[in-house]
Amino acid sequence: MALLASWLCAPAPSAQAPLSRDSVVDRLAQYAERFGHELQGIVARERYVQTIRATRGRPSLDADALTGQVLEERRLLSSLLLVHEAATPWQLHRDVLAVDDQPLADREDRLARLFGGPQAGTPAPAVIADESARYNLGRFVRNINIPTFPLIVIHPTRRERFRFRDRGHATVGGASVRLLTFEERGDSRTIRGTRGYDVVLRGSVAVDPLTGDIVRAAIEPRAHRLEPRLVVHFARVAGVALPVPVRLLESYWREGDETYVAGEATYDEFRRYGTDVGVPVVR
Predict the structure, then answer these.
(1) Where are the domains of the chain?
(2) H-type helices in the chain, by residue range?
(3) For the chain, which has fewer Cβ within 10 Å, the N-terminal or C-terminal residue?
(4) Beta bridge partners of 205
């Protein structure tokens, strides 16, 4: 009886200690590296709606609660080559198939110029980024409106550019997550404005505390009077080894303007692509 009583009264094992901030950042860096290698050659369908909206004063930049009369709208249907090069997984190619439900006539010519086989060489990252942004609505010139942009913050080759702070646990989409905020530091900037001025990146990353998977990333570049916001939601989908972007929300407003640009994109039909003289072809 004494042994049985002793067993019944034994203390329960202590709960697993939460990961340190540096451990969470390490896991995010590992995720970004794996994304580059395991998702190279993955294509997804993108359905993207951009709008120009009226506003009186500073609008709510909560992309989930956009307000203001819609003055102009553009609908884009695209095929995304998620990872162009494994070492830079944030770079992708947006192959726009249709604008406002009208198929593009020059699609094959554009792809042939970009991916015209070995004789053409690998297109420069800036060329791919600018080509992916050519149908953006509004007067704000931008090429960061891509769902893989958050990877540039968490990738190990960029880690020293950012200062991360632990904000504890939070709730995102009904799930408990670990929240980190970040801000770019030092003199070297990841992105620059069209006139060459520095743009400071800051924002937050929500992480699944059990798996280390990225759940959501919010990025708010700040330069002069422009106030952009980019939010990307990640989730697991069938047939893909890692969580992938499934929704992008964006907004851009300049202080003093009476309009702002907003957008929402969703991603599905993830699959591998085949090649025909280097041109991505969805199977």
Answers:
(1) 42-272
(2) 2-8, 21-38, 107-114, 125-132, 151-154
(3) N
(4) 180, 217
Q: Where are the beta strands (DSSP E) in the chain?
A: 42-54, 70-81, 93-99, 102-103, 162-172, 175-184, 191-192, 198-199, 202-207, 214-219, 226-235, 244-254, 259-276, 279-282
Per-position b or e across 179-207, b if 16+ CB within 10 A of its CB: bbebebeeeebbbeeeeeeebebbbbbbb
User: In this predicted structure, what is the pLDDT of residue 278?
Assistant: 46
Quote the pLDDT of residue 276.
Answer: 43
Beta partners for 178?
Answer: 169, 207
- The end-to-end CA distance of the chain, in Å, is 68
Q: What residues of the chain score a pLDDT lower than 70?
A: 1-17, 61-65, 106-132, 192-197, 274-283
pLDDT, position 219: 94
